[in-house]
């Protein structure tokens, strides 16, 4: 019913509401009144006051009550459903699901998966194929899948930690639709435009043509993002973005250090018309420098996280000037221009008004990361040695030219200088003032716009040599260097060939001067390792991924698709460069899902002819019971009112007051004492419904987060392999607690053994024992085949096997044997000789079966009992071999890592599942000829 979450199974029955006016008229009709004849003696009765009166017409409110009860019955007959499933129905065409799976979908990922699951379930019930199209994977092959396989594939998807470009998926979608023909298309959108949203909607409209399109948008948690963090002089600020304006919105941004410990919090608030606001951290600079991660509290998204590296630290910079006019004319001094240029992004400390060497020594004692020397000439040998050692350890020295430097002679400059300076445009020279020409492409100033209004009147010249070009970061029109730099050890030496004031050039007045100094300060954040953008013999430097964020903003190991990037990388994250930290642990480079200049907005769907739907967060609820119960209650109220108006109750009490009172009391006690049907535990009901809706594999939840995560991924990987290779389309694996959950729903339960784990309670042991006796199979995996000591029975002495023995001591376990070659378990689906997992040295144990003593025992290709072994024991870590990461890559390595070991591990899992489902089916003699032929007997 539009945007209202109510639907009817039989909406045509609502036409019965039209009959309500007729019912009103029928209820108001009364029998004809008796004819009145004047009879004189009746006047004697006029003075008798009647004790009871019956109205000649029904009161209007009583009629309204009856109509309401009738309307409720009509509504109940129409089958009302609150929060109905929004899946499409009534079509026989294949279903194509376009799924937004970028960082902006992570906040509402559960709602999106739930909607997709409903769509797939409806399509599966109508035997329609399903094509699942994640919009982050333009190179993915789009194919039609059965409903069960599509549901398993859906569970393998997860949001990506970067902004997706939906336009790239259109060519593959167009090829698929041309090959498929008619198709019903559903776009599960997150409603966020991170770029080229209009191009995608226009291209989608052309691609789908006149096919049916339904867009899901709304009803889900809106996405927020963090960008443009800045550590200013007084506070740290970060911009908070949202896609849609309208309505107040707020939250908290948390600041965490490298270890994940909280440093501070800052609140943010959106006004109704804003899509951008700001959060501020009013903390001391020492605490702000410790912040390595900003995140929106309560929002699971890579876009809601901003990682900070040393570039965001507010570094202390010492400035030392050798000129005397800094004291006489402070507003014209070089320290004035340098302080104004560096103050927005650094804490500036000026040297004492004394000898420059004393100020430099003071800054070295304070261990400042960067020192600026403005026209400082000759330094003592001892001080030069201290400065060289400081630079080798990671310090950054920036020098500016001047009369004193031009006459000095030391090695604290990146290039060898000619003594004296070069004057341009004076009365004694033919040379004209020079303008800035270019920035080196491999220098730290690369990408800065080249201003045309900077004029250089004087400079110090470098001696020409072969290395001069590689050390030049900025050059004048005549080719002479304006800025040079050189890496020394872990540090850096930089020289501006002009003064830091207005005497030699007007560079200090330009905005380019501020940006150049900002780039140099950024380099000082990466002094532990060489960085990109610094000219040198080895060229541009790259850094490898250290740890990256997943789509939910959680740190994970780098995926196999992550590639190294340039150390001066400043762009947004991509598939090749996911958000996270890159480089060494002591000085990593931060890459975020959004760049500082990125903004987000709502997607404009107006150009698409589409039906609109919203995500629902509640389960469908049938309202027929409530409506019928309410109607029955209204009819009971109506009967009581009629009895009161007609005097029946009063007469009953007059005639049989005592018996009537007892009867009424007994009726009330019966109604009140009747036990109401106790609602079953909702969680238990949900577990039962989920377990019986599909065949599902189960695993025991151990409480160890790492083991449970691996086992869950392993069982999901086996389920997907079963859907791809067999006719079994199992549902998502279920984790169970033997002491609490019902186990009879599952044909196979995988139990990973943790060495030293406590023995389960007796109640859990009893439930496992009953499950095994009722036909279920428990696969115990000690996962420690490589830990077995050498020698006979070494595999039984491992810590995991000792823990398993403790568990089995209270179970009624049958006699066991290693799986024999002719056992049916080796032939249920694949022909196998052993059952490897992550390891291949451990044996697999099953219930001992009686051997055939007849003449045909040797010729039978398979041997099985009347049932399935209730227990299987292995130590090869099967789930570890089955476990796959969301990107489809194996989660754990194999030992010894033979080429097809993982394939055979999956085949072993298939045989075990088929064995638990079909029993000794393959042991029947009807299969003997085919098996003998396959085995070559």
List the helices and strands and how they pair.
Blueprint: E1 6-8, H1 20-28, H2 60-77, E2 80-82, E3 95-99, H3 109-125, E4 130-134, H4 147-156, H5 170-180, E5 184-188, E6 192-193, H6 197-208, E7 213-216, E8 224-231, E9 236-242, E10 249-256, E11 262-270, E12 276-281, H7 285-288, E13 293-296, E14 305-307, E15 315-321, H8 325-328, H9 334-342, E16 346-350, H10 356-365, E17 370-374, H11 381-392, E18 396-400, H12 403-407, E19 422-423, E20 434-439, E21 455-456, E22 458-459, H13 468-471, E23 472-476, E24 481-488, E25 491-496, H14 511-523, E26 542-543, E27 545-549, E28 555-556, E29 565-566, E30 580-582, E31 589-591, E32 601-602, E33 611-613, E34 621-622, H15 624-646, H16 648-655, H17 657-673, H18 682-692, E35 698-700, H19 705-725, E36 734-736, E37 748-752, H20 762-773, E38 777-781, H21 799-808, E39 816-818, E40 845-847, E41 871-874, H22 878-882, H23 901-918, H24 928-935
Parallel strand pairs: 3-4, 3-5, 5-7, 7-33, 15-16, 15-17, 17-18, 18-25, 35-36, 35-37, 37-38, 38-41
Antiparallel strand pairs: 1-2, 2-34, 6-32, 8-9, 9-12, 10-11, 10-13, 13-14, 19-22, 20-21, 20-23, 23-24, 24-25, 26-29, 27-28, 27-30, 30-31, 39-40
Can you summarize this structure?
By secondary structure, this protein is an alpha/beta fold.
Radius of gyration: 40 Å
Order of strands, widest sheet: 16-15-17-18-25-24-23-20-21
Unreliable runs, pLDDT <50, ≥5 residues? 526-539, 673-680, 855-862
Q: What portion of the residues fall into strands of 2 or more residues?
A: 15-25%
Mean pLDDT: 83
- Give me the secondary-structure category: alpha/beta
Number of strands: 41
Helical amount:
25-40%
Number of helices: 24
Q: Which outline best applies?
A: globular
Largest beta sheet, briefly?
A: 9 strands, mixed
Q: Note the gap between the termini.
A: 68 Å
